Amino acid sequence: MTHETPHRSGFACLVGRPNVGKSTLTNALVGEKVAIMSARPQTTRHTIRGIVHREDFQLVLVDTPGLHRPRTLLGERLNTLVQDTLSEVDVVAFCLPADQKIGPGDKYIAGKLAPLMQGRRPVPVVAVVTKSDLVDRARLAEHLMAVDQLARSMDLDWSAIVPVSARGGFQVEELTEVLAAHLPEGPDLYPDGELTDEPEEVMIAELVREAALEGVRDELPHSLAVSVEEIVAREGSGNDTSGRPPLLDVRVTLFVERQSQKGIIIGRGGARLREVGTAAREGIEKLLGARIYLDLHVKVAKDWQRDPKQLQRMGF
Ligand SMILES: Nc1nc2c(ncn2[C@@H]2O[C@H](COP(=O)(O)OP(=O)(O)OP(=O)(O)O)[C@@H](O)[C@H]2O)c(=O)[nH]1
């Protein structure tokens, strides 16, 4: 045996504006679908972790809800959550998509990262240029310089700048190595094979939210919260000899802010809500590996985004 490399383990956090490709990159790094993705910004409200497990390191990924300029209490809560998450990780990956110029949103996030990078126990930040498959080499080179300039203009230093494409798998392995290099020495944090510690309820809520927003995103921008009330096994199901999976009753409440939004979700004669149920049920059955009966309720919780009690009830 040659000399042993130390085993490393720790946390990495992906930050960046909405829609820059954090979920997709998390999935590419982990190599398995862990985060529920959306074609629209700001739907990943919960911290989702995936684990990159190699012989000599274990890298636990935390996908953040995204840093936004706080507009509502919900926004502020999210920012606090993000800040708390950030101060606890070993390395931050700041995602800046190659196909978009660096803008105020990126500068805002860089401003939030600055104190972490300059603190007593500085957190290294790796600038990750995502979606690099969308631009040509010249544009990519230009963007890499702009990313470098962003740090310089704030008297900061990225630990590295890594262009990647989660789509094509370009440089994903390199990024893994760069992030792992910043982890402290330590044993595995999670047992082998455990790829996500995301509670099932959060994933179920995301699936229902996705289905409910399908086609009506513009009408229901950020006014929809989903809460999984209970998951219970239907009595007498699943423990017979037929080998059929058990039947689970899944009760879910969708909270909207206005009566008119309730109408949008439910649709004429309840038609839309039935569609939502059908679409969500498919994903949930796959997730749970069981047949389910999905019971959806729609409630109006006025101004829930601004009400701390309501927020708490919904797990924010
Ligand atoms: N071409 C290309 N598209 C990508 C890549 N990564 C992500 N996308 C697309 O960019 C969009 C946003 O990706 P997400 O992974 O959902 O972005 P996100 O940053 O997690 O978004 P939020 O959850 O809103 O914060 C999706 O339509 C992806 O398919 C990439 O490497 N190449």
TrEMBL record:
What residue spans carry the region label G5? 164-166
| KH type-2 domain: residues covered | 216-302
What topology in the membrane does the UniProt record assign?
A: Peripheral membrane protein
Q: Where is this region: G4?
A: 130-133
Q: Which Pfam families match?
A: KH_2, MMR_HSR1
Gene3D superfamilies this protein is in?
A: 3.30.300.20, P-loop containing nucleotide triphosphate hydrolases
Q: Where is this region: G2?
A: 42-46
Q: Where in this protein does the record put region G1?
A: 16-23
Record localization = Cytoplasm; Cell membrane
Residues that hold GTP according to the record: 16-23, 63-67, 130-133
> Which PROSITE patterns does this entry report, sorted A to Z?
G_ERA (PS51713), KH_TYPE_2 (PS50823)
Q: Does the keyword Acetylation apply?
A: no
Q: Which residues form the Era-type G domain?
A: 8-185
InterPro entries, per database record: G_ERA_dom, GTP-bd, GTPase_Era-like, KH_dom-like_a/b, KH_dom_type_2, KH_sf_prok-type, P-loop_NTPase, Small_GTP-bd
Alphabetized, the UniProt keywords read: Cell membrane, Cytoplasm, GTP-binding, Membrane, Nucleotide-binding, Ribosome biogenesis, RNA-binding, rRNA-binding
Task: Please give the residue ranges the record annotates as the region G3.
Answer: 63-66
PANTHER family xrefs: GTPASE ERA (PTHR42698), GTPASE ERA, MITOCHONDRIAL (PTHR42698:SF1)
Protein family (similarity comment): Belongs to the TRAFAC class TrmE-Era-EngA-EngB-Septin-like GTPase superfamily. Era GTPase family.
Subunit and interaction comment: Monomer.
Q: NCBIfam families in the record, alphabetically?
A: era, PRK00089.1, small_GTP
Question: What is this protein for, i.e. what is its function?
Answer: An essential GTPase that binds both GDP and GTP, with rapid nucleotide exchange. Plays a role in 16S rRNA processing and 30S ribosomal subunit biogenesis and possibly also in cell cycle regulation and energy metabolism.
State the protein's name: GTPase Era
What's the source species for this entry? Isoptericola halotolerans
Q: What is the lineage of its organism?
A: Bacteria, Bacillati, Actinomycetota, Actinomycetes, Micrococcales
List the gene name.
Answer: era
